[in-house]
Amino acid sequence: MxxxxxxxxxxxxxxxxxxxxxxxxxxxxxxxxxxxxxLLKGLAVVAxxxxxxxxxxxxxxxxxxxxxxxxxxxxxxxxxxxxxRIQAIIxxxxxxxxxxxxxxxxxxxxxxxxxxxxETKALVVGVLSQAxxxxxxxxxxxxxxxxxxxxxxxxxxxxxxxxxxIYDFMVAALAASLTESDIQTxxxxxxxxxxxxxxxxxxLDEANTTAYGNPEITKVNLGVRDNPGILISGHxxxxxxxxxxxxxxxxxxxxxxxxxxPAHYYPAFKKYAHFVGNYGNAxxxxxxxxASFNGPILMxxxxxxxxxxxxxxxxxxxxxxxxxxxxxxxxxxxxGAKDFSPLxxxxxxxxxxxxxxxxxxxxxxxxxxxxxLADTVIEAVKSGAIKRFVVMGGCDGRHKSRSYYxxxxxxxxxxxxxxxxxxxxxxxxxxxxxxxxxxxxxxxAGQCNDSYSLAIIALKLxxxxxxxxxxxxxxxxxxxWYEQKAIIVLLALLHLGVKHIRLGPTLPAFLSPNVAKVLIxxxxxxxxxxxxxxxxxMMAAA
Length: 542
Ligand code: SF4
Ligand code: SF3
Known about the structure:
Elements: H1 27-52, H2 60-70, H3 79-100, H4 107-110, H5 118-122, H6 133-158, H7 164-179, H8 183-212, E1 218-221, E2 229-233, H9 237-247, E3 253-256, H10 267-270, E4 275-278, H11 286-293, E5 297-299, E6 315-318, E7 327-329, H12 341-348, E8 360-363, H13 367-372, H14 374-383, E9 388-391, H15 403-411, E10 416-420, E11 435-436, E12 439-440, E13 442-444, H16 451-464, E14 475-480, H17 484-495, E15 502-504, H18 513-523, E16 526-527, H19 531-539
Helix pairs in contact: 1-2, 1-3, 1-7, 2-6, 2-7, 6-7, 6-8, 6-17, 7-8, 8-17, 15-19
């Protein structure tokens, strides 16, 4: 075994990647990420102590958030940047220790090594260094939830929205994932992670809607025009804003890819005439779709797949994303904007995108928009025109078995409405599912973090129907997961009291049998099964 990683749904053989990641991550990169997380836990222990002494390190929450974000599946494959971050963690930890006179003896708070020692050290501090499989499972579940939370917290911070309580929790929980081994206490940390997941998603919702307005019902064009284009992928809306501003009047069009599709739903972006549409599908099809796009591509976050020669000289990363050899657009200076001129220059010599498809898709059903339709929706439920809502949000992925979600969307009776968010939607968002009394049968709230919108809608419906329990609503959950943002969304739903969630295409490899049993017994989480049986059970309110 030259590495071990089981943080995503595509963990090899449902066990873990042991020689090279299915995602393309080399063992060296996996080791650097292991060491980075380990040392970050050490920094969290020191930061917690500093706060306890009343001498907190003010920037440490955001620093930890951004470093964790780098280790999310498909975010950063660039060893040089991971090494730089490890050095920065050690430097920050040592400075903090010196300033508070810290004298603890944990290895993670004291280890100092040079870059040539990182790999050897990583071999003894990775996931498998915890021998007890239940403790390991809970540590990793907690850390993966924190990674997802880190992504959302960083996006909010970029827009100027930060909450000290979220950072305090992240620091304390990360420290606990190093020092705590009592099973019940760890379960408590995992459940609290869900609670703060809701807080983090609410903060990001506030940040996005304050900066760019409330998403509106929008038809998004799938075709292309004759101008050269820039394709923007990932989740960062501030990058979206700055790219649109800097490309205005240049004769270059801008298209969204994968999780950037919901940018079209925001009023602030609609005013740009060169913001043309969405190109392609979910992240895992990028190797062919980026080739035919013909112009530069900007990856603002996950998901990057191994870069092909066909577009190697056209791919750029920014923020916490990275690919070795890809040009990285530097962070914005204090009070300034990022400089996207290298993409604009590159686009000038590129052919227009090759058309993949034509037509439109509909989206923009975040909570504020759905609430304007509340009376119609409630009436449709009362009259029986809508019998069930099925939440099918989450992530998409490569596995053939994910056709389950397309088949469920097709098999659901015409009285069912699908609520979605995240890139999972690409499995069914181009189907013609029709409408119920004018309400489309597929309501897309936005990015994966906009699962928060789906939770708000559920809570508002619970109120409107005068119910005591969210599980009494005519809503079923049939969720697709891939990476760690889906983990924080799942923990957030559990915190809100949602039960009977179907999770697929497989249950996480990092759940030990005992930890899986706790989730099943307390929340009735179940794996997806036969399409017809699942549809029947969901419609019968199983
Ligand atoms: Fe394997 Fe997923 Fe880890 Fe990549 S992130 S190495 S695919 S488990
Ligand atoms: Fe997709 Fe990577 Fe998770 Fe934001 S872009 S949902 S997989």
